[in-house]
Amino acid sequence: MNSMVEIDRIMKLLQDPDTDLEVVIRRARPGNESPIKDNPSESEVAYQLKLKELKAKERALARREAALDARDTRASLHVYNRPSYERESSRRSRSDDDTNYHN
Amino acid sequence: MLSEAAKGIIKTCNPGSLTIVAKVSKRCNIRPACAYCYDYDAQSDSPQHDMTIPTLENMIRTSVGDPTLHKVRFVWHGGEPLIVGKEFYTRAIEFQDKYAQPGSIITNRLQTNAVALDDEWIDFFKENNFNMESSFDAFDNDRTRGQTTKVLENLLHAKERGLAPGNTMFICTKQNVDRLREAYDFFDKIGLNFNPSPIIALGKACQNHDMAITPKEYGEALTDLMDYYLLERTERKIKIRFLDAIMNSVVTGDQQICSHGFCVYEFLSTDHKGDIYPCAKANEPDWCFGSVNTIGGFSEVFQTERYKKYAQECTQRVEGCAIEDNGKPCEILQYCKGGCASNAISAGGYSKRDFYCETYKIVFNHALDIIEKIHADKQRVRGNSENTAKNLKGSECCE
Questions:
Q1: Contacts of residue A98 in chain B, CB cutoff 8 Å?
Q2: From the CB of residue A84, how many other CB atoms can be counted at a distance below 10 Å?
Q3: Residue B170: its pLDDT value, please?
Q4: CA B107, chain centre distance (Å)
């Protein structure tokens, strides 16, 4: 199991004093008073920049967590990877499962 | 011509990856006790309702062997997917190896009720990198599904052996929807991720009307759970996929669940006969796109007139969601992406609004409320710090 569940990463990101959430909120709720409301194109650019910044921070946190997890689980990984998975033709890996099917 | 609101949502072709929800059998080993099976068919409990090996091979050949697909995700589903036996999945792995293209990625996930989950299955899943998901209704399980002790033992044993379910579904009904905090505590105590999903008003559930919940009830229960999970808990050992996806979507704009990701061109389902449908929850004959036993590759499906009609109706749904009944733009569409096609069927057709539209509005707005609260708290702390700094500076001057 991950040493930190993903939502902790998101919450940590939100609570980080350096993470500016203003543009994200105003994007979602344009009715709020906002200096960027008057210029939608500026708002869009600001949002995209903010989004990029948020995603970069989220990815950095995820990488840090993954590095910690890898260190913790390296010993057990070989159990799951029998030689046939290493064949060049295709990959089958539990960690590659990004299936987002919601039952 | 797509509207601005729909432009960022609609897909018009397959992106090279496909999820196939493979319903390998109509049989299930918790019938007839299970109170809400959406796939219930009293006539289907015989092996002739299992997928045959030739159909299995065709399903895999036409997907992983399709040169336009570089990533294929299999979600093994049913009925109960363990009921077809280990030999079936051994052959599935053989076929995946046989037809895989160089560099392609194949993933396997299986949704089981865990009744038959023994050491041999656990070994098989670990050896073959299968992800496992399950269903268990915690304190309500005796009433809704049965075999409670056995299933719980099997899930905990699997967890001990390093195969914890990535997700354990908890079905919300009228009788338990106001007890989601209790459900969280239950799953937290045993260390299994859980996901509260609403009862689907199909199959056996139609015989138990007293279990039905409204979108509003479901939404309000989820917001209470959000407060508990996100604000009141200082430490989280387990995750709630749906709520995580909601928060992730609001913060980063990324979609993590199919029901909020415009699934057209990326998801298909096959039944035990090999017939192809939009989703595991939607297999009306009018929306059958062909059979794995007759197509050359899955990408052919997207070229059929029936699939194009399906895509068009889903696009209409998104366009229809852009403007609310009060004439104002929907602020939630950017997150829900027009919702789930199968849920729209419950509301009257793929072009109709997702039955749970109201739930999404409640939940996404609550997520935004939480973010606004965090933002306001941070502003307050910053303001206090600045005032303190000013006061300190002022007092230094006086000295």
A1: 73, 107
A2: 12
A3: 97
A4: 16
Domain total for chain A? 1
- The verdict on a CB contact (< 8 Å) between A21 and B375 is yes
**Is residue B289 included in any domain, yes or no?**
yes
Domain membership flag for residue A32: yes
Q: Among A83-87, B362-366, B388-392, whose mean pLDDT is lowest?
A: A83-87
Phi, psi of B171 (to 5 degrees): -85, 120
Contacts of A37 in chain B (CB under 8 A): none
Cβ neighbours of B391 (radius 10 Å): 10
Please confirm whether the linkage preceding B85 is cis (ω < 30° from 0).
no
- Please indicate whether, in this complex, the C-beta atoms of A80 and B127 are within 8 angstroms of each other: yes
**Rounded average pLDDT over B159-177:** 95
Q: For residue range B271-311, what is the model confidence (pLDDT) as tens digits? A: 999 999 999 988 889 999 999 999 999 999 999 999 999 99
Q: Looking at the 3D structure of chain B, how many domains does it have? A: 1
Answer whether residue B3 is part of any domain: no
Asked if the structure places residue B376 within a domain, the reply is yes
CB pairs under 8 A between A and B: 156
Model pLDDT, residue B149: 97
Q: CA of B169: which chain A residue's CA is closest?
A: A103
Q: Which domain holds residue A23?
A: 6-76
Question: What is the crossing angle of helices B119-127 and B148-160, to 10°?
Answer: 40
pLDDT band per the 50, 70, 90 thresholds, residue B389: confident
- The CATH number linked to B72 is 3.20.20.70
Q: Is residue A34 assigned to a domain?
A: yes
Judge whether B2 lies within some domain.
no
Q: How distant is the Cα of A50 from the closest Cα of chain B, in angstroms?
A: 9
Q: Which domain holds residue B341?
A: 14-399
- pLDDT value of residue A3: 44
Chain A residues in contact with B191 by the CB 8 A cut-off are 1
